[in-house]
Design brief:
Oligomer: single chain
CATH superfamily of the largest domain: Zn peptidases
Largest sheet: 9 strands, mixed
Structural class: alpha+beta
Number of domains: 3
């Protein structure tokens, strides 16, 4: 017998004497009436029993009345108010999720420092994704690899005309990274699919779980899916030693057919991403769930400072054109440009290379990175203009030349869909969890998918606010909370709450 698994807190079922159809009126609370929907032998929250089910029963504990559907024959009964405990909605198997995370951590494990170095396109990445594929298949997903190397598991819905609900993240890591960044989102999506399979529940929408290609190296897989990956990117070489082109091939993709990986606006009903916060706000405020308002834009530049290399012992201090001295002043200027303006923008110099790199030679050339992040693209440009103006002054005083070059990895700010924000917040409330709205200071695949679909992100606490480090950690209970919110959100979207 099928059960009413996945029902929202309140629903009303109205039955009429017709053939094959039930009129369904659902609402999320006793005071909020939702829209009327008509579906063939349907359940009011959009879930269907598997084809093997022959009948379903809904029992109202309030008055004991019963609605029974035998095949296509619908009996007439009065309208019922059916309160259903939230424990009936599938809940994450925390032990299983932890086991999957621990197994994935073996691929690229750093035995001395802890954490992983599962850089995109490395042998560890290839092997780790093979493991993820096996988990997807075990969860009943049909798995394929698209032309960009994205690993995609799909579970069909009952209505093939509806767009797909997509849950995704990534399993590649930075060098000497942690075991939770990206991994929690992919394992969470697989757990949602596994729970649906074990409960014999099928959504109206198709569900896809995606492990994106090379998130850490520039959101390669999600950019390809959004149709935004340029041919020049394919020639870039990452720390695995492979170019993006060769790396995509190593993952089973086809860089010569990237156009086939592109998805169009309207293909996705929604894109959802569960992720560790990678900051300390949730832990500091003792908050369970972060409802992400938007993902900051990230703009990268490469600055080249050119001076004159000369003998360190014979060149007087007042006759030097020291590129490294000018570069050090530029680093301070980058920090000042971000802190002198009001707002939450950040600016960073994270990489610097001095040439020729000898202790007895005045540096003649320095190359460094400049990164600016904010939710507002105009503010990013304002910060950079301040940096560039200060660079001109530094170059004049130090007798050097400073040039900036835009880098391909730039990502635009992406706001999450307000409707999905509300659904996530409501899901947390239904589960008895605290939540808060917050921006994401890190880039995510969601920001590229935002070009073609409404997006939502769920954050769970990072202990100590630490990420991109072997010390990265999120407690099992917090991960389970995030997956449960993800499940509720998927079910709500499938029920049509985006349309209300």
């Amino acid at each position: 017998m099928g059960s009413l698994t996945g029902v929202p807190a309140w629903c009303t079922v109205a039955a009429t004497r017709t053939t094959n159809f039930a009129a369904v009126v659902s609402f999320s609370s006793p005071d909020e009436i939702g829209r009327t929907a008509f579906a063939h032998s349907s359940l009011p929250w959009g879930l269907f029993a598997e084809p093997s089910e022959q009948h379903m029963k809904a029992n109202s504990r309030a008055d004991g009345m019963l609605l029974t559907i035998f095949g296509p024959v619908l009996l007439t009964v009065p309208v019922l108010a059916v309160p259903v405990a939230q424990t009936h909605i599938p809940a994450a198997d925390s032990g299983r999720v932890q086991e999957h995370l621990a197994e994935l951590a073996h691929f690229g494990a750093d035995r001395e420092e802890g954490g992983v170095s599962r850089v995109a396109f490395s042998e560890a990445d290839v092997a780790g994704r093979a493991y993820v594929r096996r988990l997807m298949e075990a969860a009943g997903l049909e798995v394929r690899i698209d032309a960009a190397g994205n690993l995609i598991g799909r579970r069909e819905g009952t209505d093939r005309k509806l767009p797909t609900i997509v849950v995704g993240s990534h399993t590649d890591s930075v060098p000497h990274g942690g075991n939770y960044d990206g991994d929690v989102g992919v394992m969470g999506g697989i757990e949602v699919a596994q729970q649906l399979r074990e409960r014999h529940l099928t959504l109206r929408h198709a569900l896809e779980v995606v492990d994106f290609t090379d998130e850490e190296g520039g959101l390669v897989g999600s950019r390809a899916m959004a149709g935004e990956l340029s041919p020049a990117t394919l020639d870039l070489v990452n720390s695995s030693g492979r170019s993006v082109r060769d790396g995509i091939r190593a993952l089973g993709g086809d860089p010569d057919a990237l156009g086939t990986a592109r998805r169009s606006p309207g293909d996705f009903a929604a894109y959802l991403e569960l992720h560790i916060e990678q900051g300390g706000t949730l832990e500091r405020t003792h908050t369970d769930i972060g409802v992400v308002e938007g993902i900051v834009g990230i703009h990268w530049w490469e600055a080249t400072i050119t001076g004159v290399a000369n003998h360190a012992g014979t060149t007087p201090m007042d006759q030097r054109q020291d590129a490294l001295l000018a570069a050090s002043e530029l680093v301070l200027a980058v920090n000042a440009a971000a802190t002198e303006l009001p707002g939450r923008q950040v600016a960073t110099v994270g990489r610097i290379r001095s040439e020729p790199g000898a202790p007895n030679v005045i540096p003649g050339r320095v190359v460094l990175s400049v990164e600016v992040r904010d939710l507002n693209a105009a503010r990013i440009e304002a910060v950079f203009e301040r940096i560039r103006a200060r660079a001109r002054e530094i170059a004049r005083v130090r007798g050097t030349r400073i040039e900036f070059r835009d880098l391909e990895a730039t990502a635009a700010p992406a706001l999450t869909d307000p409707r999905i924000q509300r659904i996530i917040g409501a899901a947390a409330h239904e589960l008895g969890l605290t939540s808060m709205a917050m921006p994401s200071g890190a880039g995510h695949d969601a920001q590229d998918i935002a070009r073609i679909a409404p997006i939502g992100m769920i954050f769970v606490p990072s202990v100590g606010g630490i990420s991109h480090s072997p010390r990265e950690y999120t407690a099992p209970a917090d991960i389970a909370n995030g997956i449960n919110v993800l499940m509720h959100t998927v079910l709500s979207i499938d029920a049509g709450k985006l349309d209300r």
